[in-house]
Amino acid sequence: MTDGDSPRERDLAAGEFASWLIEVRSAIRGERGSDVPCSGCTACCTSSQFVHIGPEETDTLSHIPAELLFPAPGPPGGHLLLGYDERGHCPMLIDNRCSIYAHRPRTCRTYDCRVFTAAGVEIDGDDKVLIADRVRRWQFSFPAESDHNQHDAVRAAATYLDEHRGLLPDGAVPTNSTALAVLAVEIHEVFLHRDEQSGRTTVVERPDPDVVRREVMSRNGSRAGS
To answer: Dihedral of CA 40/41/44/48: which sign?
Structure first.
């Protein structure tokens, strides 16, 4: 860091939290892509990540050489993974740009590293240092009390999921940090209470475990059926 730099100058504007939350939940549901202000960042493309591609993504598959794909473990037949090269880079990243950007996989279209910042979840793996650095630099803005409460609820959900795995069926809580952060975003409303008279929301510190369990299993069921 030079003498003229400061931590604040290195921060990245992540947007207003409540607005971002609406957008990212829509992306998670597959209704839209994520609108991430990457500004040339390719951390997610150079961090040894496997990219899932569904069998219905025929346009994407037609633009990726078959020899770069292999069957995804777990999902039914037809689901594929795009791996990475010896440097940990996506093979479709050429000259530091996505060579199939207009045809990129849904996974890439919906990926948003701000989800880690929102949930307070640390990135898995020493090969993800570039993403981790980006996550530390994101700064959300909180123009209203509801922004703060929603942020606190997402973080409370992530903490609860991590600390209460034993209360949920085996495999219900992801071990993968990305999936954990996404699930926290999906179920955060369980950790909010809305007063009907005032309309104000407050964070629920100790939600009903049965309610959390139903919400988690509902999300897992919807993904399994997609």
So the answer is: positive
DSSP 132-174: HHHHHHEEEE--SHHHHHHHHHHHHHHHHHHH-GGGS-TTSS-
Question: Considering 95, 117, 137, which residue would you say is the last residue of a domain?
Answer: 137
Which of 82, 116, 109 minimizes the C-alpha distance to 28?
Answer: 109
CA–CA gap between residue 17 and residue 140 (Å, rounded): 6
Report pTM: 0.87
Distance, in Å, from the CA atom of 139 to the CA atom of 130, rounded to the nearest integer, reads 17
pLDDT tens column, 103-134: 999 999 999 999 999 999 999 888 899 999 99
Grouped pLDDT means (10 residues each) for the chain, 226 residues: 49 96 94 92 95 96 97 86 96 96 96 97 89 96 95 96 88 89 96 87 91 90 55
Question: Is 67 domain-assigned?
Answer: yes
57/60 Cα distance (integer angstroms): 5
Domain extent, residue 68, equals: 9-137
Q: What's the mean per-residue pLDDT of the chain? A: 90
Strand partners, 223: none
Bridge partner list, 94:
97
- Contact indicator for 151, 142 with CB cutoff of 8 Å: yes
